[in-house]
Structure formats: C-alpha cells, structure tokens
Write a structure and sequence with these properties.
The complex is a heterodimer of chains A (255) and B (119). Chain A has 255 residues and is α/β, with parallel strands linked by helices. Helices cover 39% and strands 20% of the residues of chain A. Chain A contains 8 helices and 9 strands. In chain A, strand 1, helix 1 and strand 2 form a beta-alpha-beta unit. The two termini of chain A are 32 Å apart. Helix content of chain B is 38%, strand content 22%. Chain B is globular and about 30 Å long. In chain B, helix 1 runs parallel beside helix 2. The chains are: A alpha/beta (255), B alpha/beta (119).
C-alpha cells in the first residue's frame, strides 16, 4: 500500500521503514514533486521510536525537495524525533509545520525555532501532597522529552530525596514554598532547588554508604544524601544570599 | 496492586512474608520497620520481603531494611528481598548494597534459602 497523500500534499512517513516501505515512500515523494506543489508536508506522527532509516528518509526527502525548489515541512514531529535531529545537528536543516502532539499550551510555533521545549520552573509548597504532585509533573516532563526508564527513575528519586530533605530539615513550614528549575539539555538534565530554609551544604555530604556499619548500628536514616550523590553526576551548592540554599544537580540522560 | 500497603503472612514457624506495595518511602518506611520488628520479636528468623509490586524505593525504605537486618542475622536468619524490578535493583546496586543484602530473583528462591520446600 502506498503512503497516503492528501490534497495538501501530505505524505505519511512510514513507522517501519522497511526496504519496501522506504521505496514506496520515495516513489510517492517523487510523484508529488513531479506536480511541483509549493509545499510538501511529511507527516511524522507515526515516528515515535526514531531509527536511522527514518532520518535517511527525511534527509532524502529534504534533498529532493530542495533540488526541486519545493518547500518541505515536517508535520507532527515527536519530541523523540526533535531530539534525534538536534543531536545530529540536523534540526535547522528542516522546517516544521504547526505541531499537534505537543502538550497543551506549548504548541507555539515559536517553540519550533528553539527546538524541544526543555525547561520549566515552579514553586512547590513544602508539604508532601504538593511535592508528590510536583514529582508527577516532573515525571510527565521526563516522559515528554523521551527520558529512558532508568534515567527517569533515577531523576525521580533524586527529586524526591531533595524535596523531602527540604521539607524535613530546612525549617520551612507547609505554607512556605521552594523553587525548582528544570532544564533538559541535549545530554544532561539540570535540576536546581532553591529554598529559603536553614543553610545546609548538601554537596559536601559523603557518597559512601557503609552497609555493615549502618546495619550494626541499626541506622535507619541519613541515606538520602548518599543516594542523591550516587544517582547524580554532579552536585553544586551555593548559599541563597543570607538565608537558604541553592542546590544544582547535573544528571546525564539518554533515551 | 496499586497500593502502598503491605501484605503480611507467616510462611512457616521460622519464616514470615511481607509483600510490599508499589511504594516504599517516607510515608510507610516506619510501618515496614514495625512489621519486621514484630516478626523478629515473634522469633521469625527469616523475613522474606517480596518487592514484586514495588515501583519506588526511597532512602527511608533502604533505611528500613538496613536498620532491621542485623537483628535477623544475629539470630542466624536474614531479611531476603525478592522479585526486584530492574529499576529497584539498580538503586540498590548504585548504593553498593547488592552484595550486602540477600536478594533472590523470585519468591521460590527466597523460600529455598529459608529451608522451605515447595510442594
């Protein structure tokens, strides 16, 4: 079955780019190019798991359209496709049509010029219900940017441990809030926690967990900082002016 | 089983089973300590903690295990973790606890360590 074409010259990029599907895609594309439309749209909605063959198809289409003087745009690119194109430094080689599968409120064409929407900030009340909801939003964000299962679990754990440490040890009350800035770079996620509680340098806490000593002494607390250190790649601490803390966590990530 | 609550069950006169819910964190770590301590006080040498449903383990959960395991080991028993998901196993590995803790792939292997024969 040939790739679907509608009146707007939209061609579906095959989810499974087998040799046969790729050949049909290219034949369909060449047929559309032969009509010399002003614009061709490649619908990438089916590309949730992007492989190199997909990129080859897109690049071939890009080249053919450019040589024919026809504008080509990608329609419905997934965050995963965006990220792959970004990593390959091909993002700016493509134009994008309005996206439909970005989260509500973020389907702004302006986003397209800066690629993947990759950061957010929020203030979180220092109480468990608010923290759990903030973590749920964080997990949604990680899902959205295509973080892998292990990375997502590690980041969720880091977030939980830092947020609960702030809640339990900073002296903040339930009416107080701390701020979280999340920034997903191509190869790392940067999480910054800013609170106005008691000063505490979490970055100097030890990474080592001596299980034998902990067991012999029946130690049940104090593993959170070690866990954060072990799961993160780097921690940076600075006092928040005269009161409070700014803790930045750097974590390499991959799909 | 999308609940954080535990299920508790005597397996034999020397072995006790605790099936964790989907989360072991600050909210219920003390409850696990209580359940393990009560089983130890009732002379259950082995405590099998089945993590089949466990999706999230916080440092408080780790502390609940580490803080109670020595009592079982001093009584020639152990706390045995089984059915860990890859992500939970990864957290324990990152903390270098995988060699210290007794971890089995499934409940049957845990029961074998307890000396309980399956029919």
């Amino acid at each position: 079955m040939s790739p679907a074409i509608n009146q707007n010259r939209t061609i579906d990029v095959p989810a499974k780019p087998t040799a046969e599907a790729s050949k049909e895609f290219e034949q369909t594309l060449l047929a559309v190019i032969a009509d010399h439309p002003d614009l061709i749209l490649l619908d990438c909605a089916a590309l949730q798991r992007v492989i190199s063959s997909h990129i080859n198809l897109l690049w071939t289409a890009n080249t053919l359209c450019r040589e024919a003087g026809i504008e080509l745009r990608l329609l419905n690119p997934s965050p995963g496709l965006f990220r792959i194109l970004s990593i390959l430094d091909l993002l700016h080689a493509f134009s994008f049509n309005e996206m439909e599968n970005f989260p509500e409120g973020q389907s702004d064409k302006g986003i397209l010029s800066i690629s993947l929407p990759k950061s957010y900030s929020e203030e979180v009340s220092a109480e468990m219900d608010a923290i759990n909801k903030a973590i749920a939003r964080f997990v949604s964000f990680l899902t959205y940017i295509g973080a892998g299962t292990t990375t997502m679990h590690e980041l969720r754990t880091i977030y939980y441990e830092i947020a609960t440490n702030i809640r339990q040890h900073s002296g903040l009350t339930v009416s107080d809030k701390f701020r979280v800035d999340i920034n997903a770079d191509f190869d790392q996620i940067i999480m910054t926690f800013i609170d106005a509680g008691r000063t505490f340098n979490a970055a100097v806490a030890g990474k080592h967990v001596d299980a034998n000593i902990a067991a012999k002494t029946r130690k049940r607390r104090g593993f959170g900082l070690a866990m954060i250190h072990r799961l993160a790649n780097r921690l940076e601490y600075q006092p928040n002016n005269d009161k409070g803390n700014i803790l930045t966590v750097y974590k390499k990530w991959c799909k | 089983m999308h609940t954080a609550k535990f299920e508790e069950q005597a397996l034999a006169d020397h072995a006790f089973l605790i099936v964790l819910g989907y989360m072991l964190d600050n909210n219920n770590a003390e409850e696990l300590v209580r359940a393990i301590s009560q089983a130890q006080e009732r002379n259950y040498k082995y405590i099998v903690v089945d993590c089949e449903h466990l999706e999230f383990l916080s440092s408080a959960g780790v502390g609940a295990i580490l803080g109670t395991i020595e009592t079982s080991r001093e009584n020639q028993g152990d706390i045995i973790l089984c059915n860990l998901s890859p992500t939970i196993a990864h957290v324990l590995h990152v903390l270098d606890l995988h060699d210290f803790l007794t971890i089995t792939g499934n409940r049957q292997e845990a029961l074998a360590i307890c000396g309980i024969k399956q029919g």
